[in-house]
Design goal:
eleven-stranded mixed sheet; alpha/beta; 2 domains
């Protein structure tokens, strides 16, 4: 009896030792991934930048090492979106020798350079009665002549302010083929009596930018057409105003932490010596930070049949810090819009894993439609975002202080494991979540 007890004790010790080593290796792996993605060398991973390209190269190589099949365009790991960037270098307008301030005019063009010193070279127009600036703009898009449009009424000026804000803050354009050249101008007082002199000097660089979603799959056995998506956005916000000499928004929590979970979940399932019924599609999205551009593009490219076959979409966002409800927990946005969260909670409980999923505690922030699950959820897919960071009180969010040193790597490991245990019966085909309602 004593020998049996001794053997049992040794086995127990060995199992504990194995668990600790595995945990340490997982923490080391998370550290390695996040260190790479949040490196200063990637310059904040802004969508369309060289830093984002380096990030997507790294992620695709990790998928390739695991033997995952490419699921992007033309047999690659990438789904490419072409956008355009307009960088204004010179923006001056003078009328009747009066230099107009930037809030008095807005130059709306895809042309790289506009220059004129002669009024007769310009078209001069008023906004037609009953039309908004937006409606009149549509009429002018087919014209290439430089056109000054007087913005006179209070309502038109309000619309101009909105147009100026959007134009100056928009990072990317879908299309720059139109050669329109519209100068919206609040007329100076001198124009009421004469308009004899003008000096227009405008220059911008129009650059092509490529953004890339990364896509890889582990094909299922008995139900290969049914798909479980596991994703996270890999982009961040790039370069900010310097704070104590640091201007790089590294995005360690937002969202290198989420990508680390995607890669580790991929490693877990790819290295298991068993076949899973359903296909797992691993994705990392571009341009989440500028309006869910990458995930929306991916969802729009899918057919109705493909979307219907996505049985669950797990989007992972900011898991680098413990939740407001304590450790070993993650919240799920839109928890009651499908039963995915309840299924996963039941699965971790059945596995006796000390981990819990709970409903998003920030209803006023409307997080369900603010991350990359949203474009899929809008099409009926049970798609939810899984997070832990207390976003309502995170002072490092979207700052240069979102660094590796601020992360709790044990938390990242625990959330990753919780998701793995939560989705394994779904991947195995034993459980199917309800559609979004």
């Amino acid at each position: 009896m004593r020998i049996i007890q001794t053997i049992r004790g040794l086995v127990f010790i060995l199992l504990i030792g194995f668990y600790q080593v595995t945990t340490a290796q997982t923490i080391n792996r998370a550290t390695q991934i996040i260190d790479t993605l949040s490196s200063d060398a990637l310059r904040g991973r802004q969508a369309g930048s060289e830093g984002e390209k380096l990030a997507t190269d790294y992620i695709s190589n990790e998928f390739k090492k695991l033997g995952l099949k490419p699921a992007g365009d033309n047999g690659t790991y990438f789904q490419v979106m072409t956008k355009y960037q307009k960088v204004v270098q010179k923006n001056n307008l003078s009328i009747n020798k009066e230099d107009l301030t930037k809030d008095q005019f807005f130059i709306d063009t895809n042309v790289e350079q506009l220059y004129s010193k002669k009024v007769k070279e310009l078209q001069i127009k008023d906004v037609p009665s009953g039309k908004t600036l937006k409606e009149f703009r549509q009429e002018l898009l087919d014209e290439s002549a430089i056109t000054i449009v007087w913005v006179k009424t209070k309502e038109q000026r309000k619309e101009l302010i909105s147009m100026q804000f959007k134009g100056r803050n928009k990072k990317y354009w879908e299309d720059v083929s139109s050669k329109h050249a519209i100068i919206w101008v609040i007329p100076p007082l001198s124009v009421k009596t004469k308009f004899k002199k003008v000096l227009l000097d405008f220059k911008q660089e129009v650059k092509k930018a490529e953004m890339r979603n990364v896509m890889a799959k582990l094909e299922g056995s008995s139900k290969p057409n049914e798909v479980v998506m596991v994703g996270a956005h890999h982009d961040h916000i790039g370069i900010l105003d310097a704070v104590q000499g640091d201007s790089i928004a590294n995005g360690a929590d937002d969202n290198a932490s989420g990508v680390s979970a995607v890669l580790q979940i991929a490693e877990y399932f790819a290295k298991r010596r068993r076949a899973y019924a359903r296909t797992i599609l691993f994705t990392t999205f571009s341009a989440e930070e500028i309006g869910l551009v990458g995930s929306k593009y991916m969802a729009d490219k899918m057919s109705e049949e493909e979307l219907k076959n996505i049985v669950a979409m797990i989007n992972i966002e900011m898991i680098g810090k413990p939740s407001a409800n304590g450790k070993r927990k993650a919240y799920i946005t839109g928890y009651n819009k499908s039963n995915l969260g309840r299924i996963m909670q039941k699965n971790v409980r059945n596995a006796r894993l000390k981990f819990g999923f709970f409903a998003d505690p920030y209803p006023d922030l409307k997080l369900f439609m603010r991350s990359d699950n949203a474009p899929f959820a809008a099409k009926g897919v049970p798609a939810h975002t899984f997070s832990s960071t207390d976003i309502d009180f995170d002072s490092y969010y979207h700052t240069v202080n979102d660094e590796m040193s601020s992360l709790d790597f044990q938390n990242i490991v625990e959330v990753t494991k919780g998701i793995i245990v939560g989705i394994e019966p779904i991947v195995s085909g034993r459980e199917t979540p309800s559609r979004i309602r």
